[in-house]
Design goal:
The complex is a heterodimer of chains A (about 240) and B (about 550). Chain A has about 240 residues and is mainly α. Chain A has a two-stranded antiparallel sheet with strand order 1-2. In chain A, strand 1 and strand 2 form a beta hairpin. The relative contact order of chain A is 0.16. The N terminus of chain A is likely disordered. Chain B has 17 helices and no strands. In chain B, helix 12 runs antiparallel to helix 14 and helix 14 runs antiparallel to helix 15. Chain B is globular and about 70 Å long. The chains are: A mainly alpha (about 240), B mainly alpha (about 550). Chains A and B meet through helix 1, helix 2 and helix 6 of A and helix 7 and helix 8 of B. The complex binds protoporphyrin IX containing FE and copper (II) ion. The site of copper (II) ion (CU) has 4 residues of chain B, from helix 9.
């Protein structure tokens, strides 16, 4: 009895001191742990979500190896490489933003969040350019698709099968498209984080939303780190 | 103590989660896990009756050998919509979203799920998905079968495949979010003293289920995205004419859909475990075996998907491996059945309605599981694949098992949920009718399948008619059995006797708070100092007096 009275008052105080502590949590630590675990589990579902696509990709790449190699040469590795660099930079700015919140550097926090979003938008801009190129080259699967008389890199005397190349492009668009969709959602999350930071919601003690937003952003980066070699670099060794 | 005074002052109207606030807004914007559970209860019941209505139409069509009630293509839509609604909008959410939502926080001693707003979001996702499904149904329907097999679904069917796919995609996110919420709650929100080894087995079952929901559902989601993309843009991912691979679809589909059958059955096993412990007044025999068998089922469940593809063109060696693995997954299920039996042995058993449902569950589940072993044997599967034998097998498990557990759980916890007692006599009668109706419906289908009647046909040779008539008769009885609980539950809300806090004299934290519970479940945070299912202790304390029932 006395035990639970004590815990009840401690509970009350914790709530009085921190308006960000939701009522159904007993302590800030519990709330932070729950949010973090929740985000990690969500990312596990994301791994499985992309996993289905990676699985499909690997199967067709095994079957239609040469056609995939031919198709991948039509994708601009320079643009893709630039995007990889852009994303890595954005991951760095996310980490710096969290560090700024932990050390109460408001100006830095705001600028790092803005920078992250600029990198994100740059990524999407470059992606848009790539998509437009594909469109102009008739490499978008569908009625106007054409991939005739493209040589296979390792057998320059043979042409790639356009049907199989079309599967490559289908997977390319679905995988990068889903990834871009995740980036757009990420930009939404970061807009919200920026607004919270602007309202001075984050303190060295309370910055869980930054952390879980950051986890999400890093995850989206990591997906790209796999997509880039699979789609852009598979036959660039000669 | 404070509870006792509260009852003395205001004997009827204690503040609880139902009467705390009124108005539609207070329900549609609630973040209380108990209210959300009721929102799910209403919407899931709605879908159960739509799905059931289609089932009756199917059975009516099969009453006669000729296809005289509906046309072939209408029949295809009927069984497709029946399957999709029952699987994705009733069976998968049923126990987790209703009973799990209501009970998981209370059983671990928490005030709510870890993410109450995400919980509400998951209900809205379910409703959006459901509304899309209903719209799809009303504007033409789908005819691919609930399995969406390609290339039929992507290249040939001229029905609303995309809309149905999107509906299930959206509902899938609801399922993922529920699972995520449960795992975090079970990890981070347990009351002091509620160790892992003191958790009710209902919680372990939901933990295992959540793992499948989290890791499996995204696979069906991406598979549906691919189907939709292929159908809309004529990509060649699954269509062999375009260089794609229809077997890839089946691999991806069953990688989710086999584990999904455990999303349906594991929570039901959890319910049955609670009921058996309470009505046999004993600690569950081999607590940790039952707990870990749930996890084992969840894990093994991911390794056997290709037993649905024995005759689809996979290699003989793959078939062999998947056949053996399928046998392995039966082991943890059998562990549970043995442990329930051992718990019942020498228990002081009471035959109240929840217990009748639990017995029904054990019988029907065993039957379904054993026939699953038949199907897992390559030679037999080649003979009965895509016949009514398979239909009977999975209905024994999913309807006989999962729905029995759901109904048993609804009866067991109804006093807690509604604060009212249901009429026990009617409930026992309903349990009996369901059991008889069920067997009459589905047992003849084993024989039909063995004799060679294929599934998904709207007419059949006349020699199959007797068994089909029996089955249709059974379906009618079953329908009565399912309607009855709905009637007396609704009746009890108005006229039922008020329920005491713990009508069954049961163990478990959810019984230690008032019926119906207050918004944050407990007056003060509970501290757990006893083991799970301490029935011997409870009975020693209370002199083993008979529980109160309606
Ligand atoms: C535990 C709960 C179980 C549930 C809910 C369940 C459910 C189902 C369902 C829904 C189907 C039909 C899928 C379709 O539409 O084609 C099915 C088929 C099958 N089940 Fe089960 N099952 C369970 C247990 C088992 C077990 C333990 C085994 C094996 C040891 C098994 C082996 C099979 C096989 C081999 C098939 C495919 C039959 C065929 O299509 O030829 N099942 N099951
Ligand atoms: Cu299976």
């Amino acid at each position: 009895m006395s035990d639970s009275t004590v815990s009840a008052t401690v509970h009350g105080e914790a709530h009085a001191q921190n308006p960000a502590l939701l009522h159904h949590f007993a302590t800030e630590e519990q709330q932070r742990d729950a949010s973090n675990l929740g985000m990690w589990i969500f990312l596990a579902t994301e791994v499985m979500f992309f996993g289905g696509l990676f699985c499909a990709y690997l199967i067709y790449r095994g079957w239609y190896f040469d056609d995939f190699a031919a198709a991948s040469t039509s994708i601009d590795a320079l643009l893709g490489g630039t995007n990889t660099a852009v994303l890595i930079c954005s991951s760095l700015t996310v980490v710096l933003a969290i560090w700024a919140a932990q050390t109460s550097r408001r100006g830095m926090l705001l600028s790092m969040l803005v920078l992250t979003m600029i990198f994100g938008m740059a990524f999407l801009g470059i992606k848009g350019k790539e998509y437009k190129d594909k469109f102009d080259e008739h490499h978008v699967p569908g009625a106007s698709f054409s991939f005739d008389h493209v040589a296979i890199p390792s057998h320059p005397d043979q042409y790639a099968n356009p049907r199989h190349a079309e599967i490559f492009f289908a997977l390319y668009f679905i995988m990068t498209g889903l990834h871009a969709l995740h980036m757009i959602i990420g930009l939404g999350i970061f807009t919200w984080l920026l607004w919270m930071a602007w309202k001075r919601r984050f303190t060295p003690e309370y910055h869980t939303p930054l952390e879980i937003g950051g986890l999400y952003w890093h995850f989206v980066d990591i997906i790209w780190i796999y997509l880039f070699p699979l789609l852009y670099l598979i036959d660039r060794h000669q | 103590m404070s509870m006792a005074t509260a009852t003395a002052v205001k004997p009827v109207e204690r503040e609880n989660y139902l009467n705390k606030e009124y108005g539609v807004g207070s329900w549609l914007l609630t973040t209380d896990h108990k209210r959300i559970a009721l929102l799910y209860l209403i919407s899931i019941t709605f879908f159960f009756f739509i799905g059931g209505f289609f089932a009756l139409l199917i059975r009516l069509e099969l009453l006669t050998p000729a296809g005289d009630l509906v046309q072939a293509d209408t029949y295809n839509k009927l069984f497709t919509q029946h399957g999709q609604i029952m699987v994705f909008f009733f069976l998968i959410p049923s126990i987790p979203a209703v009973l799990g939502n209501f009970l998981v926080p209370m059983m671990v001693g928490a005030k709510d799920l870890a993410f109450p707003r995400i919980n509400l979001l998951s209900w809205y996702l379910y409703i959006i998905g459901g509304a899309m499904m209903v719209h799809c149904m009303l504007t033409g329907g789908v005819d691919t079968g609930w399995t969406f097999y390609t290339p039929f679904s992507t290249a040939f069917s001229n029905t609303k495949v995309i809309e149905a796919g999107l509906a299930i995609f959206v509902a899938g996110f609801s399922s993922i979010l529920t699972g995520l919420n449960f795992v975090v709650t079970i990890h981070r929100m347990r009351a002091p003293g509620m160790t892992w080894s003191r958790l009710p087995l209902f919680i372990w079952a939901h933990y295992a289920t959540s793992i499948i929901q989290i890791l499996g559902t995204p696979i069906i989601a991406i598979t549906l995205v691919l189907v939709i993309a292929e159908r809309a843009l004529h990509l060649g991912i699954f269509d062999p004419k375009l260089g794609g691979d229809p077997l890839l679809f089946q691999h991806l589909f069953w990688f989710y859909s086999h584990p999904a059958v455990y999303i349906m059955i594991l929570p039901s096993m959890g319910v049955v475990t609670e009921i058996i412990a309470c009505f046999a007044r004993k600690r569950i025999f081999g607590y940790s075996f039952v707990a870990f068998s749930s996890i084992a089922i969840a894990v093994f469940g991911f390794l056997v998907w290709a037993h649905h593809m024995f005759v689809a063109g996979i290699s003989v060696y793959a078939a062999l491996v998947f056949s053996i693995l399928s046998y392995a997954v039966a082991v943890p299920s059998a562990v549970k059945v043995f442990n329930w039996t051992a718990t019942l042995y020498k228990g002081s058993i009471r035959y109240d309605a929840p217990m009748l449902y639990a017995f029904g569950f054990i019988g029907l589940f065993t039957m379904g599981g054993l026939t699953g072993l038949f199907l897992a044997a390559l030679g037999i599967d080649v003979h009965v694949h895509d016949t009514y034998f398979v239909i009977a097998h999975f209905h024994y498990i999913m309807v006989g098992g999962a729905v029995m557990g759901y109904l048993g759980g609804m009866h067991f916890w109804w006093p807690k949920i509604s604060g009212k007692l249901y009429p026990e006599g009617w409930a026992r009668l309903a349990a009996l009718i369901v059991f008889i109706g069920f067997n009459l419906t589905f047992f003849p289908q084993f024989i039909l399948g063995y004799l060679g009647m294929p599934r998904r046909y709207y007419q059949y040779p006349p020699e199959f008619q007797v068994l089909n008539v029996l089955s249709t008769a059974g379906a009618t009885v079953l329908a009565v059995g399912y309607l009855l609980p709905m009637c007396y539950f609704l009746w009890s809300m108005r006229y039922g006797k008020p329920a005491p806090d713990n009508p069954w004299n049961a163990a478990g934290l959810e019984w230690q708070t008032q019926s119906p519970p207050t918004t944050f479940n407990f007056e003060k945070e509970p501290v757990v100092t006893w083991e799970a299912y301490n029935y011997e202790e409870i009975d020693a304390r209370t002199g083993g007096e008979a529980p109160i029932v309606g």
